[in-house]
Write a structure and sequence with these properties.
The complex is a heterodimer.
Chain A (H helix, E strand, L loop, with lengths): L1 H5 L7 H24 L3 H24 L2 H18 L11 H18 L8 H12 L3 H5 L1 H17 L4 H12 L4 H7 L4 H21 L6
Helix pairs in contact in A: 2-3, 3-4, 3-5, 3-8, 4-5, 5-6, 9-11, 10-11
Chain B lengths: L2 H29 L9 H12 L6 H11 L2 H31 L36 H25 L1 H4 L4
Helix pairs in contact in B: 1-2
Classes of the chains: A mainly alpha, B mainly alpha.
Chain lengths: 217, 172
């Protein structure tokens, strides 16, 4: 990838740059996939080192909602890749879309197995897997960016279903991780009252997420 | 105490529990200990944060996951190197041994061209084995004597062929 950056000529457009970079990365992936399919574990390890962190950050962690669950799921994805790399057929979109689908399916299993209170549910992920089948190669090349934005949009959409004051409390304290006292001051309440406000806000959000519609509060 | 006051007190207790649970989430990431969160609200808050601003996976954690899922990824590479080195060493030794045999110097005082030819046991009649006429009923002893003589010739020939294979080639 760095080598590809080094040889980029001046005056090449950003879109063209992205295309050159992704093509260089794809060529490298293709070689690693061929070696991995021939039984080279080191090549498979390189592939997973390249794509694993992005898969964790953009797909598994946002959808499973906790670091521990996302790490367990990532290990499971790697085991599935190890067992099925021979079935992978190279297409012009590269390796990432395939491993992303494996990750989504693994996340679906996790969400169904453990009834945790998280933002995404298994049906959301089923829809994402279905959408993957109708995507164009360009969509696939941009899927990492799209996944990160989709998760943020899901948060915003959930917050839009509750009282704006509750949404503000959650945004400042949970999403922006501001200190409790500072947020209480911003919202013009005492810290103890803010605790009650945040409790009500998260309870309303939980209700809205579970019902799939707008909260009563 | 009125119902309202009781509800308020109950809600304040839950709010305080949530505050502690939210504070513990980060610590529990390090210790992997479960935090008290009966309503699942702290879990929901954690899920929101993970979806909105997901953290990166540390390279140490990633390597740990990789080694758990692909135990042979590292050891396989080492094994491959060991096999290649062993194969190289054995090949080199075999080539050296072959070369040594080919270039083997003749022992001092021994000229390969001047060595005496090996004396082979020739096919011959059995008559010299029996200087006196056989009596009736001695056929077994007669056959034994022939067999012993042939066995002796065979041993001699075999010994000669091992002792000087280059000189016996093409003479049989």
């Amino acid at each position: 990838m760095n080598a590809a950056i080094a040889i980029l000529p001046f005056g090449v457009s950003a879109g063209k740059n992205l295309e050159i970079l992704t093509d260089a990365a794809s060529a490298q992936d293709r070689e690693l996939v061929a070696r991995a399919q021939a039984g080279d574990r080191q090549a498979l390890g390189e592939l997973l080192r390249t794509h694993g962190p992005a898969l964790y950050r953009n797909v598994l962690l946002p959808r499973l909602g906790s670091e521990a669950a996302a790490k367990d799921a990532l290990a499971e994805v790697y085991e599935k890749v190890l067992g099925n790399i021979g079935k992978f057929v190279w297409q012009n979109v590269g390796f990432y879309p395939w491993i992303r689908t494996v990750a989504l399916r693994t996340a679906i299993d996790h969400l169904r197995r453990k009834k945790r209170t998280v933002l995404f549910d298994a049906d959301d992920l089923e829809r994402e897997v279905d959408a993957q089948n109708t995507q164009t190669p360009v969509d696939d090349k941009l899927s990492q960016l799209r996944d990160a934005r989709a998760a943020q949009a899901k948060v915003e959409e959930a917050l839009s279903r509750i009282n704006p004051r509750y949404a503000m409390a959650i945004r400042l304290r949970v999403l922006e991780d501001k200190p409790r006292d500072e947020v209480a001051k911003t919202m013009d309440v005492t810290p103890a009252t803010f605790d009650v406000l945040l409790h009500r806000a998260l309870a309303a959000l939980k209700k809205a997420v579970k019902s799939g519609g707008e909260s009563d509060e | 105490m009125s119902d309202q006051e009781e509800n308020d007190r109950d809600e304040m207790a839950k709010a305080e529990a949530l505050r502690r649970a939210l504070a513990n989430i980060r610590e529990s990431h390090e210790s992997h200990e479960p935090h008290a969160d009966p309503d699942g609200l702290a879990e929901l808050a954690e899920s929101l944060r993970a979806a909105h601003t997901p953290s990166d996976l540390s390279s140490k954690d990633h390597e740990e996951i990789l080694s758990r899922a692909l135990p042979a990824a590292k050891s396989g590479a080492k094994g491959g190197r060991v096999i290649r080195v062993t194969f190289g060493v054995v090949s080199a030794m075999a080539i050296a041994a072959g070369l040594l045999l080919y270039l083997r110097p003749t022992p001092p005082g021994r000229d390969p061209g001047s060595e005496a030819p090996v004396a082979w046991a020739r096919s011959r009649s059995t008559t010299p084995l029996f200087s006196e006429p056989w009596k009736r009923g001695e056929s077994t002893a007669r056959i034994d004597r022939i067999a012993l003589a042939r066995e002796h010739d065979f041993r001699e020939n075999r010994f000669n062929s091992r002792l000087a294979p280059d000189r016996t080639r093409g003479r049989r």
